[in-house]
Design goal:
- The protein is mostly helical.
- Helices cover 71% and strands 3% of the residues.
- It has seven helices and two strands, in the order βααααβααα.
- It has a two-stranded antiparallel ribbon.
- The radius of gyration is 45 Å and the shape is rod-shaped.
- The relative contact order is 0.06.
Length: 187
């Protein structure tokens, strides 16, 4: 909102005419806005809108006073950015999302690596324990053989086909080894 200074009405009329506001205000508004906006980057223009508005108002009041025009109120109603700027902002957002996606992939790869290492350590420990169990107790191998035979028998029993196997095929030749050992030793 603007008004002429009453004491300078004759000067305004002589220098600028009756349409003083239409002749002066658009040019000084553009001049002051460009001057103030140049002091801030785009994100500051959005986040520090009040400070920008106060600075524009102060500079506009001072500049309009040179033409004997009093400004009562200044408000920024529309703040637009050029296509290039909007495209740059979009590119920046896409780049940030790509960087975040890459960080996620790196973190996932590190987690996969840790899981593989832990699994390998567990399998090594398991193999070591099985080796010690076999060395300390030969019956452990027999227990494993029985478990394997049970799994084979379960799988075959669920099959629609009819299969006939002897105990050797099922790895159940439990007595065979002892009877063979007994025949090999003469009494």
């Amino acid at each position: 909102l603007s008004r002429p200074e009453v004491a300078s009405l004759s000067t305004i009329y002589r220098r600028l005419g009756l349409d003083y506001d239409e002749r002066v205000l658009p040019s000084i508004v553009n001049e002051v806005c460009k001057q103030v906006v140049a002091q801030f980057n785009a994100s500051q223009l959005l986040t520090q809108r009040d400070q920008v508005a106060r600075l524009i108002q102060r500079n506009l009041v001072a500049r309009a006073a040179e033409f004997n025009i009093a400004l009562d109120d200044v408000s920024i109603t529309d703040l637009r950015f050029g296509r290039e700027f909007m495209a740059a902002v979009e590119r920046k957002q896409v780049a940030q999302q790509d960087a975040e996606r890459a960080r996620f992939m790196v973190d996932k790869a590190l987690q996969d690596k840790r899981s593989i290492i832990i699994r390998a350590q567990g399998e090594a420990t398991s193999a070591d324990l099985i080796g010690k169990a076999i060395a300390n107790n030969p019956g452990f191998v027999e227990l494993r053989r029985i478990d394997a035979a049970r799994n084979v028998a379960t799988t075959i029993s669920r099959s629609a086909n009819r299969v006939f196997l002897d105990s050797n095929s099922l790895m159940l030749n439990l007595m065979g080894d002892k009877s063979r050992d007994a025949k090999a030793q003469p009494a």
